[in-house]
Each structure stands twice: as C-alpha cells, then as structure tokens.
Amino acid sequence: MKTAIASMALTSLLLGAFPVSADMHGDMQKLAEEKQCLSCHASDDDTPRAPGFNSIAAKYAGSEMRGYLVDVVMTGGEDHWGSATMPESDERAEVSEEEAGQLVDWILSKHEK
C-alpha cells in the first residue's frame, strides 16, 4: 500500500501536479543556465530567437505532450514553435532525460502561477 501511494505521489510530481517550491525554482533556474536554455529562452517574455517559458507553459498547459517536450529539450530540432529552430543536441550542452524532465516540469509549472 505504501509503495502504491509513493508511486502515485512520484507520478503526480513528475507530471507537474505539485507546485514548484522556491528552492526547486532556484535549482531549475540554475540548471536552465547550465544547459544554455537561457541563451535563447527567457523566463517571462518571448525573445526574437525563442518563446519564453511562460508562453511554452501556456501553449502546452493541460496537454499530454510532456514526453514530446522532454524529447525536444534533449534533441533540439525545428518545427516546435513557428519558424524558431532549437539548436541540435551537438550544438549545445548535453541534457539527460532526467534533467529534461525536470526542466519541462518546471516550465509547465509556470502556467499554474
């Protein structure tokens, strides 16, 4: 029973059901900086190069696109947002699947605010 509850809590956390704490926000901001996300994306506003995290969160709010977004963070490419092209993975810092999931959950949590 405890395992089932823990599993449900972890699943909910991974799906962004819990709000991001201030500490986690700082950690995710730092991770986004380390992985060079902020060289194209801004937190609040769209830039000439890429959509802001709030715009991404609004577009994908409530959707079942988390896996797709994790893949986009890991592999880059194009056709994600109009004519904006995300650098290919060999042109930027490597992002693990776990890190990509954390970043996606953090970005999607911005819509809940």
Question: What does this 3D model show about the protein?
Answer:
The structure is a single chain. The protein has a two-stranded antiparallel ribbon with strand order 1-2. It has helices at 2-14, 22-34, 53-60, 66-75, 97-109, and strands spanning 77-81, 84-86. The chain has 5 helices and 2 strands; from the N terminus they run ααααββα. The longest helix is centred in the first third of the chain and has 13 residues, at 2-14. The chain has one domain (2-112): Cytochrome c-like domain (Cytochrome Bc1 Complex, Chain D, domain 2, Orthogonal Bundle). Residues 1-22 form the signal peptide. Keywords: Electron transport, Heme, Iron, Metal-binding, Signal, Transport. It comes from Halomonas fontilapidosi. Residues 22-111 form the Cytochrome c domain.
Please estimate the helix content. 40-55%
CATH class reads Mainly Alpha
Instruction: Please indicate the count of domains.
Output: 1
Mean pLDDT: 77
- Give the biggest sheet: 2 strands, antiparallel
What is the second-level CATH architecture? Orthogonal Bundle
CATH topology: Cytochrome Bc1 Complex, Chain D, domain 2
CATH superfamily: Cytochrome c-like domain
How many helix segments? Answer: 5
What series of H and E elements makes up the topology? Answer: HHHHEEH
Give the CA-based shape: globular
The strand order across the widest sheet is: 1-2
Proportion of β residues? 5-15%
Low-confidence stretches: 1-18
What radius of gyration results from the CA coordinates? 14 Å
Strand segment tally: 2
Q: Separation of termini?
A: 33 Å
**Helix/sheet category:** mainly alpha
